[in-house]
Design goal:
The structure is a single chain. The chain has 14 helices and 9 strands. It is of the alpha/beta class.
Length: 285
């Protein structure tokens, strides 16, 4: 008999063991560990259990095996913590694209044919000298849509107004190659995806597109927030965030930052070991 799980968007679906195993392996668990945790969690299921509760139980078991794998598994919720931390999602997206080799600037006012537009992130393949002059490089104007609840989705209304904004900017700059991109830390509605595909607007969500989505790109760049670290307490993470230390790289680049929040000795070594395993691009973990 199938056990139905309550999803964060208010709907329900039958529990699928393969999906849980896949997410655990994606985070870095070995096939054996993923299967072991899946069997353990499956024994604890009950009708109406939430996806958040399943995540909590799987995370606890995974953390007992490998800290870095648990941190990767918790990445989605770590990004959600940008809201309470006050760290702008658009700044994180800009850092991600910079890690991929783009030039990125945030919070720009761009003149369209009809009105000015507030743009979260402006991307180009190389450093521009003037965003309002003709260049031999494409420009992408990014709307960074942050949600602090897993069940919220970026809908058709958002992609409609972004498309209108891009059209107005293109009308002002017909000689330039201009693209529009909507980035969200959750999901898009089906109608938003359908319209964007038809209208030529690019979308980047947590699981969209299936390959090269936001999770994949963060993981490849290893641009993990300190909120993903399992070796730090909540209070220690808050102290780092208050000191404007947001990314794992902020810890690895400053050897004294942990000492300043009272993390020393073996605990500091454990944190730095997790940072090294989780946040170093190109390292095989």
């Amino acid at each position: 008999m199938a056990v139905f799980v309550a999803k964060s968007d208010g709907t329900s679906e039958a529990f699928v063991a393969a999906k849980l195993r896949s997410s655990l392996k994606r985070a870095g668990a070995t096939p054996e560990v993923a299967e072991q945790i899946e069997r353990t969690v499956e024994k604890e299921l009950y009708s109406g259990i939430t996806t958040t509760e399943i995540y909590r139980r799987a995370f606890a078991h995974l953390r007992g095996h490998k800290h870095f794998a648990a941190a990767r598994y918790s990445l989605k919720r770590a990004v959600l913590d940008f809201g309470p931390s006050g760290f702008p999602f658009e700044a994180f997206i800009a850092e991600l694209f910079r890690a991929e080799g783009y030039h990125a600037i945030i919070d720009q006012i761009i003149q369209g044919a009809c009105v000015e537009h507030e743009v979260d992130v402006v991307l180009s393949d190389k450093k521009p000298t003037n965003l309002n002059k003709k260049k031999d490089t494409a420009i992408t104007y990014v709307e960074a849509k942050f949600h602090n609840t897993l069940g919220l989705k970026t809908d058709l209304k958002t992609v409609l107004y972004v498309k209108a904004r891009i059209d107005d900017i293109r009308a002002k700059n017909p000689e330039k190659e201009i693209r529009g991109l909507v980035v969200t830390n959750t999901k898009f509605t089906e109608r938003a995806v359908q319209y964007a595909s038809c209208a030529g607007l690019d979308l980047l969500g947590w699981e969209y597109p299936p390959k090269g989505n936001l999770y994949d790109r963060i993981d490849v760049a290893r641009l993990y927030p300190i909120t993903a670290l399992t070796t730090l307490s909540k209070g220690e993470k808050v102290a780092l965030l208050n000191d404007k230390k947001v990314l794992c790289s902020d810890i690895s680049a400053d050897s004294e930052v942990l000492q300043q929040i009272g993390v020393r000795g073996k605990r500091a070594n454990s944190v730095l070991e997790e940072v090294g395993a989780l946040c170093v691009p190109g390292k095989d973990i």
